[in-house]
Amino acid sequence: QVLLVFAEEDEQSNGFRWACDKAGFRCNLARTPQSALECFLDKHHDIIIIDHRHSRYFDAEALCRSIRTTKASENTVIICVVQRHTDREESSILPLISAGFTRRYVENSSRMACYNELIQLEFGQVQAQFKLRACNSLFTALEKSQEAIEITSEDHVIQYVNPAFETMMGYQIGELIEKELTEVPINEKKADFLDTINSCIKIGKEWQGMYYAKKKNGDSIQQNVKILPVIGQGGKIRHYVSISRLCNDNNKVEKTCECIQAESQTDTQTCRHKDMRKGSLDVRSTTSRGSDGISQRRRSSMARVHSMTIEAPITKVINIINAAQESSPMPVAEALDRALEILRTTELYSPQLGTKDEDPHTSDLVGGLMTDGLRRLSGNEYILSAKQTHQVAGSLSSPISLNDIPPRITQAMENEEQWDFDIFELEAATHKRPLVYLGLKIFARFGICEFLNCSESTLRSWLQVIEANYHSSNSYHNSTHSADVLHATAYFLSKERVKQTLDPIDEVAALIAATVHDVDHPGRTNSFLCNAGSELAILYNDTAVLESHHAALAFQLTTRDGKCNIFKNMERNEYRTLRQVIIDMVLATEMTKHFEHVNKFVNSINKPLAALEENGNNGDGESIKTVLRSPENRILIKRMLIKCADISNPCRPREQCIEWAGRISEEYFAQTDEERRQGLPVVMPVFDRNTCSIPKSQLSFIDYFIIDMFDAWDAFADLPNLMEHLNNNIKYWKGLDGRNLRVLRPPP
């Protein structure tokens, strides 16, 4: 916003008004100092241009001083328009600077000259003032920080400390500012320890560790300190930021300091209402007297809050490493630094793909399946509405009874208890409705109706509603995939080791989760939905979008109509437990957590069981039971079970494996086509139907996701037939790839 202060309209004022319009700036015009001041206090303009050419109208310098006395003008750029004199010596601008002007403008009524001046101001002084305004927010954050913060210059001269630092060390800010660190005896470090720190921070690396500091009263305290070098002008280190927190073994001192600080902040908040009536108060002075009038009850209450020790295991590990660094030689300290960098990442379980010679098929699969898109907003929004209409029980025809299943379908399901069961034969026999029929048979075999205390007709209605909400138009994520995952889940539940581990409620939850795990899948990946700005991605904050939708919709469809509500007769607490397990298992199918689930399973279950066997405890039922039956491990087993069932296609007999590979490839091809049509980021460019090698994509998927996971699952559940199919399928795809064939099958 621009405020023009001109007593009379002339070419110069008109030039600036034209320039404001061209630049898209909002412009106000004032004729008198009084109206200028009132307008500024109302609008808070970024730029004020005052006419200083005609002193007979008003005193421009006096007006500038008046504006500068207001708090609102702190970050305002004020320009002085002066007369052009060609016949006299250039006058000094110091009086103008003293009056509060930012710069002067020698009159030039050319419209482009006025426009150029405004543009230079915008990208120069105005932007600089914007940054200074932001600094107020940063300093507010520093003032309120619980951690003690100290900022020094490149020469280690103290330039800033926050109230938490004053409280911790017992100094007032005036005793520290502009003092060199060596002048203030706050650090108790050995010379070689100081050298270690300096050698680290002087090359631009942050240092973190523990050391002892001395308070003003002489008390010694141990701190956990992080020192960060700040690169500034010329690419050189210009400042050092030190962030300190008292260590836990000084718990008593830490509680006292934090307690006082918390009370001080509370007191500051209560003063805000007074500020509105009495004008501004000095925040620091308010903070310093914050604890004086607080009652004993509040003090003891705050002390109890701060005595709580809420510390994650990873935090304890990092603290142990930090402590070890202090007394370690440099090579060990540097190695521990690298370990800390790894531990602080949020992706502790995800392997990092190399940057050189990486197989593009693997890169694209990982990028497409293990990320939530590029978070790029697009004008072309893919609408998958959370409010769209879904099939409900009342809108569907009456389902058939288990006893009335046609002979062809019965025959197709004869060997459903075997791994080599052909789901595609059942798909053809049921006209793409395999889920209802297979669900009825498997649920009857596991006694689901008896457990849920629901009738077979309710179960039939529920299965039909769920199947109706799978998209038959999807080549892969349709009800046949759901039926396939249900079959794999039932097969895994029948394995002896799994039966030893899980309770009946776990079996029920697993079968229901398998049935609903992809309901209403749109045939597009999470990355696609996030990039397209779909309503579901917005609803679920770009996090596990589809998996969250599948779980939520499954319960919505089930509970909205009593005809298909299989949970309606359950006791409340048992229902809540069942619901939690189902949701957890559906969310486990999200691929971004793939390596976390697999690694936890290996480390918490495979390795302890292997250790028991190696130590000759194979027959020790109690030891094995302890591993298998702990609540945490049962959760890991259920997650692993549904994950393996969900992506078991490469472990199926060859013809089924080939069919599934063709279907998933077609779905990815269709997504790539749509991304290009809509101008969205292409998350898996390798899945171009004109150039993609399906054998390569299958080998990449198997190598990256399947082999380790099924090795672990086989070691647990004993699945030699699956591993044999997997090895045969790998040989098949390698054979095609070795002949440079990109198709599903070799030519006849």
List keywords for this structure.
748 residues, alpha/beta, Rossmann fold, Beta-Lactamase, Catalytic domain of cyclic nucleotide phosphodiesterase 4b2b, 6-stranded antiparallel sheet, 5-stranded parallel sheet, 32 helices, 11 strands, 54% helix, elongated
List strands and helices in order, with pairings.
Blueprint: E1 2-5, H1 11-23, E2 27-30, H2 33-43, E3 47-51, H3 60-68, E4 77-82, H4 94-99, E5 103-106, H5 111-144, E6 148-153, E7 158-161, H6 163-169, E8 187-188, H7 191-201, E9 207-214, E10 220-231, E11 237-246, H8 251-270, H9 272-278, H10 283-288, H11 296-306, H12 313-326, H13 330-343, H14 360-369, H15 407-412, H16 423-429, H17 434-445, H18 448-452, H19 456-468, H20 479-493, H21 496-501, H22 504-516, H23 526-532, H24 535-539, H25 545-559, H26 572-587, H27 594-614, H28 621-629, H29 631-646, H30 654-678, H31 694-717, H32 720-738
Parallel strand pairs: 1-2, 1-3, 3-4, 4-5
Antiparallel strand pairs: 6-7, 6-11, 8-9, 9-10, 10-11
Helix pairs in contact: 1-5, 6-8, 8-11, 12-13, 17-19, 17-20, 20-22, 20-29, 22-26, 22-29, 25-26, 26-29, 27-28, 27-29, 27-31, 31-32
CATH architecture of the largest domain: Orthogonal Bundle
Spatial order of strands in the largest sheet: 7-6-11-10-9-8
Mean pLDDT: 82
Radius of gyration over alpha carbons?
35 Å
CATH class of the largest domain: Mainly Alpha
Query: Which strand-content bin applies to the residues?
Result: 5-15%
Q: Any idea what the shape is?
A: elongated
For the biggest sheet, the summary is: 6 strands, antiparallel
Low-confidence stretches: 249-310, 374-383
Question: Could you please say which CATH topology of the largest domain applies here?
Answer: Catalytic domain of cyclic nucleotide phosphodiesterase 4b2b
Kindly state the number of beta strands: 11
Organism: Vidua chalybeata (Village indigobird)
Biased composition (Polar residues): 283-294
Protein name: Phosphodiesterase
Enzyme class: hydrolase
